[in-house]
Amino acid sequence: DAKTTQPNSMESNExxxxxxxxxxxxxxxxxxxxxxxxxxxxxxxxVIHGLTSNVNNRMASLAxxxxxxxxxxxxxxATLRDAAVYYCILRWSGGGADGLTFGxxxxxxxxx
Amino acid sequence: DAGITQSPRHKVTETGxxxxxxxxxxxxxRYMYWYRQDPGHGLRLIHYSYGVKDTDxxxxxxxxxxxxxxxxxxxxxLESATSSQTSVYFCAIRRTESGNTIYxxxxxxxxxx
Lengths: 112, 113
Prior knowledge:
With 112 residues, chain A is mostly beta strands. Chain A has strands at 9-13, 18-23, 31-38, 45-50, 55-56, 61-64, 70-75, 84-92, 106-111.
């Protein structure tokens, strides 16, 4: 899987939007951009994924740059429950049998 | 909820004893995974399975074996547990029908003393 770069940590206030960046300059045309998050003492949780177009779901939005070399996970209104480590992972469309490769992710801190 | 159950959820065992962790899924997915997570190392893949009796090694497979005799169960065995295998173990399945997204179980906390 191609490499991604994320900030080690970010801090935001409750009830404000949060924009989590991810750089993936070596992304290939068939790589999907996946986001997962891990709350304390829990397993990682799928958040969203996309290929080229921006995506929305009940948890978040994913904005993908036109050249696909970066993306941003958007939490529209952060709550304390959104405090977690967020992982940006590239995954080729064929899937393959092997699992996702997790980096260190971004530790998101939410202030009340 | 991806229908994944891990057991036991917590276990303390002695060095040198065998330990088996079980991952059970209810949705008939083909792909299953075992990860471990340690401070400073993040999540690392131990073994994975792509079907009954079809398994392969991941990044940190030494000291671990797996078996998958039926679709719903993926077993991780530590033949002779060591203190370095104290960790949190996560099982996961892959949903190929939803963009190959992966869903994790709640984890098994293993302490080897």
